[in-house]
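Reply to dn_fold:

You asked what the input looked like. This is it:
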Amino acid sequence: MKHMNSEVKEERTSNKKRIDLFLVPIVLIAAFLNLFKIWTDEYANAYYTAAVKSMLQSFHNFFYASFDPGGYVTIDKPPVVFWIQTISAKIFGFHGWSVILPQALAGIGSVLLLYVLIKRTFGVWAGRFAALAMALTPIVPAVSRTNNIDSMLVFTLLLATWMLFRAVRTVKFGWVLAAFAMIGVAFNMKMLQAYMVLPAFYVFYVVATKITWKKKIAFLTTATALMLAVSVSWAVVVDSTSADKRPYMGSSQTNSVLELAFGYNGINRLTGNTSVTGSSHKQPAQTEQQTASSETKQNSNSSADSSQSSNQRKSSFSQKMQAPGGGNQNGMFNTGNPGPFRLFQKGLSDQISWLLPFVIFSIVGLFAGVKFKGPYTAKQKESLFWLAWLLPVAVFFSIAGFFHQYYLIMLAPPIAAFAGAGAVALWSMYKQHNDWKSWLLPGGILTTAALQVYIMSPYVSSIGVAPIAGVGALGVILALVLAIRKQRKNSLTNYLGAAAMVVLLAMPAYWAMTPIIYGGNSMLPSAGPDSSSGMGGPPSTATNSQQSGFNGMQPPGISSGNSSSNNQMQPPSGSSNGGQMPGGSSNNGQMQPPSGSSNSGQMQMPGGSSNNSQMPNSFSSKSSSSKRKSGGMNAEVNQKLLNYLTKNNTGEKYLFATTDSTSAAPYIIKTGKPVMAMGGFSGSDPILTVSKLKAMIKKGEVKYFYLSGMGKGGQSDVITWIKENSKEIPSSKWQSTSSSAQQGPSGNGTLYEITLK
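and this is what came back:
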């Protein structure tokens, strides 16, 4: 800390010529948090892993990001990140870790980019603190350790930021075009989410660039046009291609990329409303929550304990997971209830908000004395950029109807930037001023420590009282001592300031390690002592820790030997799964919670994650207790069913058809053969009609159909026709009776065969 007053005066030329030795351990920390043990995750997010398996097989599948090798339906996102994952799998072989690796490297790259961005203007110490804060923001490594898109998205947007800053410094139009084109690339990663940074880009360029207004308007207009062209380039190609020559656009209702971008992956995230297939009205995002988890039969060895634990979880958790407006405090998927203090609510605060009070004090300090009409210093201009990134994104997450916890990674760069720049600025004010500005540092430390105590308090049963009391006591003591010693400028004061920053980063560091310690959830990644559940909320009070997380569902054809209906939840037969995200399956409006910090439980979601380390390896026929099956519901293959289908295949294109991706993904991953998810991801896509299905059967493309109670939305006519025109295959021919703890996707369904002449 003693170097902070002089670090802004360091020679930048010398900095460019040598490696910052302080940065090395920060990068090593980021590498550890993002990379360690990713090789134990065999499936990652199985919904996306299956797509990579399919994309490896042909350029047609690669270009369209087909979910299945047969090119029947795409996944629910644009292809750029999955192109990168496929290239990684091509180079390193198809493994869970090889599809995770690009995101893990992107997480490390984001730490380095933030260091470069902050260091140049705010100084080397600010850059170091910002990089460390980024590395230790819990949701950052939690997401980067999966094959979800968001880590790569943030890296791309930070790269665009670097280009924009360079455009302002060099006053070169080419860098402006490059920056906005990069946002267009980011759009092809996760669509409208990439545009959340646009206010920052426009405001900063207008304020910081020293050119005429005429040129500013012309440059920004041209750059925006280029961004839009890049953004829709893939969509235009896909939407202009005949529907019979490409896969159906998954999770859209009109087979359109643009509809997917502005509906399912766009406005519906803000409103929380999702189109319900087959109806003319909108339905609240409660549908998402209602389709979030299913519980089926447990194996015979644990059925009694499972039933007791399940009942306890249902009674304690169902009240918490009601849809927004239902009077609960945790909200849907533990994302809290909309309002100005949503980011401080349980489930969100421990993912992203550890340093928010310090950031608020930093913003006050950095903008102290700023006049609206300027002139502005370089620090004030760049602070404005990070503020214009932070505020709109924070407002969105405060009011949005539907999102997952891991989306909060979008807030990590501005929070880390203000933490780094603010630490230096507040320290300088503390040392050099005697007015109100000198109180910002101890005030920021005190309020931040208080918030961290609040964040940790629901987890007292998991982490104990000592860490909570320690952070609170040290925060109060250090803030008070710094306040008392304001006039004393000596080495002890420097050490106290450094100690305060260590205290504020200690618990975020621990939280960032929890996906390694407890296991992570590749479907719905989150950090915390219950990170394996993917719910990101405090543990429940279930008495049996071995029943933590979500009770698993059985793979097609796995019989647990427990027929008790109390341990099985089925969706209403007429329910729709419309609008379901990766991670939703019907459960009559109830979600099963984590029940402690044990990672033996599972969160069951279509394409979801599991952390049951005893789950058999679906990449091979042998079990592997050392491997983590984060594919969740999609993590199991019934070998007897697979053998039956393979033996009786008479040249059909599809191994079998099923309602949704939940049952299809594990068989695609294991065999690389086409499996048809008739209704797309959730079973709600209006892809198939009875007439189309008849034509496919007559052509000899498919004859076996596995149907369970899942994914019937939008497919009722098709499923009814299948049942009326098929013969049921006796379960003894394909259904496993193994009593081992095999947890998987689709419950005990029925296998049908149809042959038409």
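The beta strands are 273-275, 282-284, 657-658, 676-677, 704-707, 727-728, 750-753.
Hope that clears it up.
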